[in-house]
Structure to design on (359 residues):
């Protein structure tokens, strides 16, 4: 059943960190019965409840029942990722000729902000109400040198659930020293329901003529290549599983899809760039963003038998991620849009996950 509640935000306890910091869950509802659960730990989206074509509701994001599971077992489920989402090669980058070393927490490379990225910190949360909907504002000050990044970075992320069934995420950040910033959202979506098994039967469209190939360590090689004639061509809707296991070198390197698509006509304005359809339920999710890239990941590294919400054992490829962001390893690739942020500038990013049903 859907959440039968008028628009608003309710707050409940969700445990404490080992340091004793209380963590809260914000349940945000709209007037249509859609509801989103959000933690002030990691900015984690714990649930998104939406109806199907018959009005039956399901939770369409993977996650866990306890804070300890999110702390110790989660592959970034539902989290805010930063300071720099994706991979940084060998954990090194330079800004204005100064080289910085950050943690190599994914083989030889740096991934998703390091050992204690934005997914593993406590944010300061407060409920918000606007004419468009209700939500949560989350704030965090990342100190100079945290995880090796330069500059004090003051970050605000606003989740807003609208009465048109959109989850809007707005990111803002300012710095007092030149640094790099690349934030994203890392929910694993399964439009049949979080406990429904593989997402390989979902249909996907991505408005991108090119993608960034990776090497065997999943590091982008710094080039941009056309999707035409490859398993990476989703310009017209295609079933995800139809080509995922083809003997393609890039699919072998990613163990499936785990690449950045170079979005068409990028100019920093918000526009729709992807659409996912689950055929049995007719649930549809559209993605709109201001970002130049979209990381499409099919949960290839999900541990078999990972126990999630309601005690359900998730399977490999049980969820898909559509992470709007700059390209992986952008600080080290001159051909990619730069993620550098300077004092006096403001990092701004908006991504919208829009839910409906196919006619």
């Amino acid at each position: 059943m859907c959440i039968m509640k008028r628009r608003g935000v309710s707050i409940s306890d969700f445990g404490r960190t080992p340091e004793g910091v209380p963590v809260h869950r914000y349940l945000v509802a709209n007037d249509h019965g859609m509801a989103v659960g959000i933690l002030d730990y990691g900015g984690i989206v714990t649930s998104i409840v939406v109806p199907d074509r018959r009005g039956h509701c399901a939770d369409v994001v993977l996650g866990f029942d306890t804070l300890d599971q999110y702390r110790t077992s989660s592959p970034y489920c539902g989290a805010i990722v930063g300071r720099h989402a994706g991979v940084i090669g060998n954990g090194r980058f330079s800004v204005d000729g100064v080289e910085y070393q950050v943690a190599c927490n994914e083989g030889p490379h740096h991934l998703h902000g390091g050992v204690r990225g934005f997914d593993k910190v406590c944010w300061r949360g407060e409920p918000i109400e606007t004419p468009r909907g209700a939500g949560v504002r989350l704030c965090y000050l990342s100190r100079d040198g945290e995880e090796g990044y330069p500059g004090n970075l003051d970050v605000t992320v606003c989740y807003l659930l609208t009465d048109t069934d959109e989850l809007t995420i707005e990111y803002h950040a300012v710095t007092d020293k030149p640094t790099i910033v690349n934030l994203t959202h890392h929910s694993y979506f399964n439009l049949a329901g979080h406990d429904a098994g593989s997402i390989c039967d979902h249909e996907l469209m991505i408005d991108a003529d090119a993608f960034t190939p990776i090497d065997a360590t999943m590091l982008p090689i710094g080039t941009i290549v056309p999707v035409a004639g490859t398993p990476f061509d989703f310009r017209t809707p295609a079933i995800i599983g139809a080509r995922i296991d083809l003997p393609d070198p890039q699919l072998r390197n990613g163990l499936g899809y785990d690449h950045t698509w170079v979005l068409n006509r990028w100019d920093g304005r918000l526009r729709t760039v992807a659409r996912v359809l689950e055929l049995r339920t007719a649930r549809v999710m559209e993605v709109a963003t201001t970002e130049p890239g979209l990381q499409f990941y099919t949960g290839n590294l999900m541990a078999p038998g990972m126990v999630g919400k309601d005690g359900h054992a998730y399977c490999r490829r049980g969820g898909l991620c559509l992470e709007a962001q700059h390209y992986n390893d952008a600080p080290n690739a001159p051909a990619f849009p730069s993620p550098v942020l300077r004092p006096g500038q403001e990092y701004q990013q908006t991504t919208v996950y829009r839910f409906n049903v196919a006619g």
Remarks:
- The helical segments are 67-72, 249-254.
